[in-house]
């Protein structure tokens, strides 16, 4: 099982990366899943060159391979001008220009950071439509963290809920944890990827 975090944070240290790390830790807790982080800040030049010459550099090529081979994604962006960052969008443009189905059916947890809670709707107005267009399966709970949320009540609970939803879609949650057996009989939880495979012609 492989989980990839795509972080578009620009600063060092980055609250965007911190949020991605916390979400990943919660999603793979108690499993043998591998976690890989793609820092878009380090790929900015290669992303720009890819637009002009059509060829990904070695770092960008590795990042594309990581994302397309992942069993699940956590994508985190800082908020700029009430939307995702240009670097974030550019990466997913590059990713899908060669393969429009690169994210089709892939479980994705969306998250964002910003200086004010007033931008929390970026999850629903920008990120969710983007990944719905790319035909990814976006988990119901997105996580937005404003500056005042760090250390405050509520953020940890949102992280756990969203991470649990992603783990369930990835099939990383044991059946007993994902769906407790009811008295008088139980039911089987079928991992999302298996359900999706059954629908394919």
From TrEMBL:
Domain NADPH-dependent FMN reductase-like, first and last residues per copy: 1-150
Keywords assigned by UniProt, alphabetized: Flavoprotein, FMN, Oxidoreductase
Entry-linked Pfam families: FMN_red
InterPro entries xref list: CE1759_FMN_reduct, Flavoprotein-like_sf, FMN_Rdtase-like_dom, NAD(P)H-dep_FMN_reductase
Superkingdom of the source species: Bacteria
GO function terms (MF aspect): oxidoreductase activity
The protein's name in its UniProt record: Oxidoreductase
Natural source organism: Streptomyces albiflavescens
């Amino acid at each position: 099982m492989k989980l990839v975090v795509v972080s578009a944070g620009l600063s060092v240290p980055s609250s965007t990366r911190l949020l991605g790390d916390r979400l990943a830790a919660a999603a793979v807790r108690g499993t043998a899943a591998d976690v890989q982080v793609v820092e878009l800040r380090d790929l900015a030049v290669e992303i720009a060159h890819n637009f002009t010459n059509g060829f990904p550099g070695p770092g960008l090529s590795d990042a594309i391979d990581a994302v397309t081979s992942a069993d699940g994604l956590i994508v985190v962006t800082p908020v700029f001008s009430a939307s995702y960052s240009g670097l974030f969008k550019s990466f997913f443009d590059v990713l899908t220009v060669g393969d429009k189905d690169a994210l089709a059916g892939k479980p994705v947890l969306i998250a964002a950071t910003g200086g004010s809670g007033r931008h929390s709707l970026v999850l629903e107005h920008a990120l969710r439509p983007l990944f719905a267009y790319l035909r990814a399966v976006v988990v119901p709970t997105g996580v937005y963290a404003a500056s005042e949320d760090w250390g405050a009540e509520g953020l940890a609970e949102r992280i756990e809920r969203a991470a649990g939803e992603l783990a369930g879609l990835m099939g990383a949650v044991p059946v007993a944890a994902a769906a407790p057996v009811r008295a008088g009989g139980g039911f089987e939880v079928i991992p999302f990827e298996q359900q999706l495979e059954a629908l394919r012609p």
